[in-house]
Design goal:
Elements (H helix, E strand, L loop, with lengths): L13 E4 L2 E4 L25 H8 L1 E8 L3 E6 L16 E2 H7 L12 E7 L4 H7 L5 E7 L2 E7 L2 E2 L12 H12 L10 H4 E4 L5 E3 L1 H5 L8 H14 L2 H4 L2
Antiparallel strand pairs: 1-2, 3-7, 4-6, 4-10, 5-6, 6-9, 7-8, 10-11
């Protein structure tokens, strides 16, 4: 899909003068009411050190619980098929929709999927997430989503007899088993791994990472960001 000119971001050099933003070359910034934007400023320019601390703080926000099912998208070539004992784990699009639920219609799907499950944490992960339970966490810095981090992941027994270290590791192991024709077995888990919303639909993980909240059906992402933004709101504003 080609992005229209009206959807693209425009970089405007500005400066803060007498309580409002002005263009560097003069005059107010000509934007509509309620327009949203991001500003890039020097840390030394931040007058409120508490605000600076909040914006630099790294945190983890739990998104999915241990035991949550995920679908990993894979491409299987008939001329180089996976081993016979692996084939029962392959699910076509129609199989997934019949057994588990439908897809987000805007997503381009891989021909096949393999189901994995979020498992318990390793010792390091338990310390990192401060949790004895496994799951999936969104890592943030200030108001910016940095990425998703998981605990260990349970793959089909024929692929790994014990839970593997992470979602990235699970994707690599599955690719090695089901996509032997590939030179590299790494991939983008945000577009190739799907999670299930409460409405039964499956969405790529980048919905959770990138705050794709235009649709009300993204309940998990919506509730996550509502809680996150409540943390970011200064207490003196919430009491007004």
């Amino acid at each position: 899909m080609v992005t229209g000119a009206s959807d693209r971001r425009l970089r405007i050099p500005v400066r803060w003068v007498d309580g409002e933003w002005e263009c560097d070359f003069g005059g107010r910034v000509p934007v509509k009411d309620l327009a949203s934007a991001e500003i890039l400023v020097s840390r030394a320019s931040i007058a409120d050190k508490t605000f600076l601390k909040i914006m630099e703080r790294r945190a983890f926000h739990k998104v999915l619980e241990e035991g949550a099912r995920l679908l990993v998208g894979l491409t299987v070539k008939p001329e180089k098929p996976p081993r016979e004992n692996l084939r029962p784990h392959l699910k076509r699009n129609a199989d997934v929709q019949r057994e588990f639920g439908s897809f987000d219609s805007s997503y381009r799907y891989d021909p096949y999927f393999v189901e994995v499950q979020l498992a318990g944490p390793s010792d390091r992960q338990a310390r990192l997430f401060n949790s004895v339970r496994g799951g999936l966490w969104l890592m943030t810095q200030g108001a910016t989503a940095i990425g998703l981090e998981s605990t260990t992941v349970k793959a089909p027994q024929e692929v790994a007899t014990e839970p593997v270290a992470s979602l990235n590791h699970a994707y690599t192991r599955l690719s090695e088993a089901f996509e032997p024709w590939r030179i590299s077995h790494t991939g983008n888990i945000y577009s190739r791994v799907l999670y299930q919303e409460r409405n039964g639909k499956w969405y790529p993980l980048d919905v959770l990472r990138d705050r794709a909240l235009q649709k009300a059906e993204h309940e998990t992402a919506q509730s996550l960001w509502n809680a996150f933004m409540a943390e970011m709101t200064p207490r003196d504003q919430t009491s007004q």
